[in-house]
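Researcher: Predict the fold of histidine kinase.
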Amino acid sequence: MARRQWSIAGQLFALQAVVVTLLVLGGAAGAVWLARVDSRQAAQEKVLAVAQTVAGSPDVRAALATADPASILQPYAEATWRATDTDFVVVMAPDRTRYSHPTPKLIGEPFVGDIGPALAGRPFTTTNVGTLGESVRAVVPVYDEERRIVGLVSVGITTRAINRKLLRQLPVLLGVAAPALALAATGSWLLSRRLRRQTHGLGPAQMTRMYEYYDAVLHSVREGLVVLTTDRRVALVNDEGRRLLGLDADEPVTDQPVAGIDLPPAVAELLGSGRDALDEPMLAGDRVLVANQRTARFEGAPLGTVLTLRDQTELRTLASELDSVRALTEALQAQTHESANRLHTVLTLVELGRADEAVRLGTRDLALAQQLTDRVVDAVTEPALAALLLGKSAQAGERGVDLVVEPDCRLDDSPLPTNDLLTVVGNLIDNALEAVAGTPPPRTVRVFVGAVDDELVVRVADSGPGLAADRVADAFRRGWSTKSTGRGLGLALIGQVVRRHGGSYDVGRSDDGGSLFTVRLPVGGAPR
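Model: Structure tokens for histidine kinase follow.
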């Protein structure tokens, strides 16, 4: 069987119980010791006072001058120790001969104990073992009228009597110690109960292991994690979250209100709203992130909000390229079917002896396709851009859209990184194709790419319904699409490229009544 592990609360309660018990017992022992010291001191003061009173009595001095002092002093001493609650009063001669004693048969016997200081004229107290056992006693000299020592008086209280008085005080001490111990134990129990709730009954080893795993996981996961409290303060941001949100590694964000942190607008809006989000794309600088946000709860009570972020910048780029390849493949498949139909028709015309019509039919479409290819290749020497335009042309033809590359289109060398150029041209064409989808024919998209006055100009016009002026800034800031989902990022990605290269964009009306998107980027300008 596994060894049972104590929780932190249980260990704390046990430790507090031991400490409190030891403190109370120590306090009680200290109180008993002090009471014992006080009792002995009180006994010393009492016996000294009684002895001095007896020694100063004229009756005692007179009795010591008689021929039989014991007959007078024994009754006197017996009455005195009974009246003063002492254990013995012994009057003796300077040679230790007793004239009184609680045990009458010991009268006449020598006194047991030290009397030296009293014979020298100094009253004193001491603890000695005598015939009655250990006792606290005082010895005082008796003077005659000529100041000669004519006798000694010893008054004592046995240690047993002192201890009996002390034992009678123990119930009082226990009556004070027991409630104190009960009160301390109750406080320790309440504290341990509260700690058990807060630590969920976990032990030190479990909490240490949980912290180590927690810290290791937060630093190693490849998803950004942002945790907010119920009052919209940042409780946690892991390393990947800082990287995706552009936060410095040493920037203090913990316990800061989310409104006071410099975050990308889309992320700040999502965190500030506290709403749930499922695979919601958003822009953070140059990155395309997918956000998921949920309210964290424990036993039904809300603890805060948890936001996870996944970087899909590269995935979006690959998906865009894949979409282009898929569209080109579909167009080629369609053209294959069309070519098969035309070939069958040409062969039939030849069999019918109508060779001239067969030649015209076979070369007409080929000439048109070759004409478009020659125009694009001659005008655009950037192979990736030329391939993109040809692919988009095939895609447009499949959708029933006439994609026209403007005759004055000319681009010998791309002044932009290829990825940025494809982002601008490809997304503008995609948005234009979406804009004309569903509109009555003729459906037209016109494209111009070229260098004009030290600027690279990309201009795409469509015959769609157009984009309202009040939606332009919003489209480029947060991402916008003509799709019904409304979750496109094409224009926002274009806006990032424009800002990075210090360019500009403009949206107006085309000659066909649709939208005219114009993007201008400085030629040779260093990206920012």
